[in-house]
Amino acid sequence: MAAETTVDLMTFVPKVTFELIPIKNLVANQEYQRNLSESHILRAAKDFDLYQINPVKVSRRMGINYVFNGQHTIEIVALVSGSRETPVWCMVYDDMNYKSEAHVFADQQKYVKALVPYEIFMAHIEAQDQKYLIIRDLVRSYDLEISSTKAPGTICAVSTLEQIYDKFGYHVLDRTIRLCVGTWEGEINSFSGNILNAIARMVVIYGDTMYDEVFKDHVGKFTVKAIGRTAKERRPGALGYAEAMVIAYNAKCKNRLSMKKLYGKNYDEEIDEDQEETDEGNGTE
Fold this sequence. Notes:
Elements: E1 16-22, E2 26-27, H1 38-46, E3 56-61, E4 64-69, H2 71-81, E5 87-93, H3 98-107, H4 117-126, H5 130-140, E6 145-146, E7 154-155, H6 158-168, H7 170-184, H8 193-206, H9 212-219, H10 224-234, H11 237-250, H12 273-281
Parallel strand pairs: 2-4, 3-5, 6-7
Antiparallel strand pairs: 1-5, 3-4
Helix pairs in contact: 1-2, 4-5, 6-7, 6-8, 7-8, 7-9, 8-11, 9-11, 10-11
């Protein structure tokens, strides 16, 4: 029998202590640190959640506590608490030098798997968060499901659904899905972020001057691929899709939609159309 190898399991445990250290006693001005993002700090402070605060990683050298992971965390806590006397939990390393700190800082996100929109959405469902339950139930009312992968009867453009709901409300999202389903009868590619954003844009801009039956009849004469080809010839993102749909809608139509209104100031441009294209490309949407 081969001799058993004894493994010291403590070699896999970081040599750290956990301490509550006042923010005023932490230093985060090393050259390897990134610049503080004031907008990030303000945004996080606005939605402050004590359960989202992670321990700050600190390297103690020559009696000084150098933060190498958590510089934004300490600024957020200082802002919310109104004092740099506020203590934060720190993982304190006593065996690091400046070079090892910089190396760890550079690689800290190397093996972190970011959550995709679907995973975030479903976690909110498990938490019974009202907004997400409303969006899910609305999608289900059309015999559809929210999914992480494309399949018949599913919508993968999770962040698009949420953005439309946040910016324009329940009724715009409802009409957007209804028009999409009625126009292409659930065709698998018809629920992309660009398609949904384009329809939402038209719903907001044209309102009741755009007739649902005309939209479904005229735009539905073109396949999703045909709409996409026309969109690419005109301009990138959802705006190109909206232009393609307006052209299709106006064909042999007495009550034509004004193309110029697509660029009017009444429409809130804050939906990030370029990001939607990126989401669709990575398989999450």
